[in-house]
Specification:
There is one protein chain. With 230 residues, the protein is an all-alpha fold. It has twelve helices and no strands. Helix 2 crosses helix 5, helix 6 packs parallel to helix 10 and helix 7 packs across helix 10. It is elongated. The two termini are 35 Å apart. 30% of the residues are buried.
Length: 230
């Protein structure tokens, strides 16, 4: 496990299996109850450790929570490497991006709920403690993909790369929230209908098509309907 500023050195020294139990338990409690209602004593009890041990691993409930968010971002960063951003057209990369995002979200729904928690206003203090590194790798990937697409003539030359990167990231995040948050899930169904629940292909195809058109990707560049088939 990589070094973190949110847990103590003693946590690094315990068995990986025990680390996983603590993290899995804490993720479940925070995702179900939110930060304020979650109780670190209860988390320790459910994880099968003493509260003294818990505080020997983390200075506070806040540090435990931030360690979980950090872990989730690391897992997502690792998953996003499957997008192979240096392979294929920008359409290919975007399609892989949304498929990977869906797979990650369905595999780690509670992690995505923690991300939703950290974005709320009452978590401002905790948010400020997260390093800029948390989003840097994603920004870098999006901008690299977009810059390469411009150089290859796949998208319009006048594209604002920063704004385009932000838009793509927002589209990915909103899709993840729609698959994990009750509110955003219902919101998606209001717009797309009940059938949206089982039609992941439509979610991928529509997002990629909309972004491609905004970027000015031509059909010749690989944004045709047939390109969305697996």
């Amino acid at each position: 496990m990589a070094s973190s500023r949110f847990y103590k050195e003693t946590f690094e020294k315990i068995a990986p299996e025990k680390q996983d139990i603590i993290f899995t338990t804490a993720i479940s409690v925070f995702a179900e109850r939110g930060f304020d209602a979650a109780n670190i004593n209860e988390i320790a009890k459910l994880a099968g450790i003493s509260i003294g041990s818990m505080y020997s691993y983390f200075d506070s409930k806040e540090d435990l929570f931030l360690a979980l968010v950090e872990k989730g971002l690391e897992l997502l960063d690792r998953a996003m490497s499957e997008c192979c951003p240096d392979q294929g057209t920008i359409t290919d990369v975007l399609e892989r991006l949304f498929r990977v995002a869906i797979r990650y979200t369905e595999k780690h729904p509670d992690m995505c709920r923690l991300y939703l928690l950290i974005t709320t206003d009452n978590m401002k203090v905790q948010t400020e403690r997260l390093s800029d590194q948390a989003e840097m790798s994603f920004r870098s990937m999006y901008k690299t993909v977009l810059k390469r697409a411009v150089e290859r003539g796949e998208v319009r030359e006048d594209i604002d790369l920063d704004m385009a990167a932000l838009y793509i990231d927002n589209a990915v995040v909103m899709l993840q929230l729609a698959l994990t948050s009750r509110y955003y899930h219902l919101k998606m169904k209001h717009y797309l209908g009940d059938e949206a629940d089982g039609d992941r292909e439509r979610l991928v195809r529509a997002n990629v098509d909309f972004i491609c058109r905004g970027l000015g990707v031509t059909l010749a560049s690989g944004c045709g309907a047939d390109d969305f088939k697996e």
